[in-house]
# Entry
Amino acid sequence: MSELTVKAEKLDAGDELAAKRAEFVLDGPEGAVYLDGNSLGALPVAVPGRVADVVGRQWGEMRIRSWAESGWWTAPERIGDRIAPLVGAAAGQIVVGDSTSVNVFKALVGAVRLAQENGPGRDEILVDATTFPTDGYIAGSAARMTGCALRPVEPSEVPGALGERTAAVLLNHVDYRTGRLHDLPSLTAAVHAAGAYAVWDLCHSAGALPVGLDEHGVDLAVGCTYKYLNGGPGSPAYLYVRADLQERFDSPLPGWNSHAEPFGMRSEYAPAEGAVRGRVGTPDILSMLALEAALEVWDGVTVEVVRAKSLALTDFFLECVGTYVPEGRVECLTPLPHEERGSQVALRCADAGPVMQRLIGRGVVGDFRHPDVLRFGFTPLYVGFADVERAARVLAEELG
# Structure
């Protein structure tokens, strides 16, 4: 037994989140090591039964009555309040529904409208030049719609790029390729100092590390729920609008669900109060209530404890890779300082695509990003230190 195997056993023995593993559907000790929760989280054991009840009883037996009696109508805000503590937000500021892309569009156009309402001359949107492609596509469309110029900027260069023309800035909290954690507090402060509005994409941070939306005065934020929040494939995303901005938030997608009188069927639109303004059409109830069941795994868990384990897992993985993998075979793209690291490790490898396929064939499931990046995501609620050691050992064998 190697020293790192022994170390893994000791770390697992002292893991205060170890019992959470039983709340997920996972393979046994000889099955797959799942390190792709940064793409799709594992299935919480409570979800199948809940979905069966929603389909069989709430829909099958109660039918239309469930909008009121089963709480379907209030689900977007109720589940938003369940997510709120995980991103450092007070209740009443998050609404769940639609996709991340749709919510990015709402948030970014809404941010530009807020800026332009404050005064003339705000006609530029800054967007993270390293962003996930969809965010860039949406930012381009939002710019055309609002008469703004679009300016891609590296996150580190945002403070120097801000100016009197800046209306809004769209940034990713964690880079999806490298796992780099960007400085949300200082970047948000810089955006505000320039008189602009900050929109943050939390897809790769919510549920993995503290975000502090309220503490740091973030204006608007969006995120998905199928990664570290384990909501399932295509589970609805969410939109955060800071409480003091809600009265002025002008959604580019006003729908009957966000109307002050949704059943009044009036020809003119009048927005509802609060987070409800972020709604558009009929909620996707089946996936939304699956998400609500999935979020029960967070009962009794703080994001701070999750963050501590995340850093311990990624530290240990890097230690194992450094010990097992032949020198020069991979290059770590993920920052080593804790304050710059999300909950994944990205390794550059010349033949990354074939290597990842071989790893998956041997039960170590990560993913590949073109052209040469191996990504390994660490979800602290169900990944253990023995998993980490095994993954690094198998990687070394494939690269040896």
